[in-house]
Design goal:
- The chain has 90 residues and is mostly beta strands.
- It is 11% helix and 51% strand.
- The chain has a six-stranded mixed sheet, covered by helices on one side.
- The protein starts with 5 loop residues before the first strand and ends in a 7-residue tail after the last strand.
- The mean pLDDT is 92.
Length: 90
């Protein structure tokens, strides 16, 4: 991961900039006992899209998430985390 990597968790409206902030954010998620099962991986125009079914101790578990990875020089520079529309009940 690039030192200045950025993560945007659009479902939680959070941004994390840099390795230190990302590690702190990930460390806080341990209480949710998250487990992810990768459903699909695609490469669309240089952006890697990972579809994942994530379960754990959180409302609505399990939920589908889409992760959009941007990579430069073999390092992750950006991750956009988007909850699947399938998670929202009409």
């Amino acid at each position: 991961m690039a030192k200045d990597a950025h993560i945007h968790d659009s479902g939680e409206h959070n941004h994390f900039n840099g390795i230190k902030a990302i590690k702190e954010w990930r460390g806080k998620s341990i209480e949710f006992e998250l487990k992810s099962k990768i459903i699909d991986v695609e490469n669309k125009h240089g952006i890697i899209i990972v579809s994942s079914l994530t379960s754990g101790i959180f409302p609505g578990s399990p939920q589908l998430f889409y992760y959009f990875f941007t990579v430069a020089n073999d390092l992750i520079t950006n991750i956009e985390i988007v909850p699947g529309a399938e998670n929202f009940k009409q």
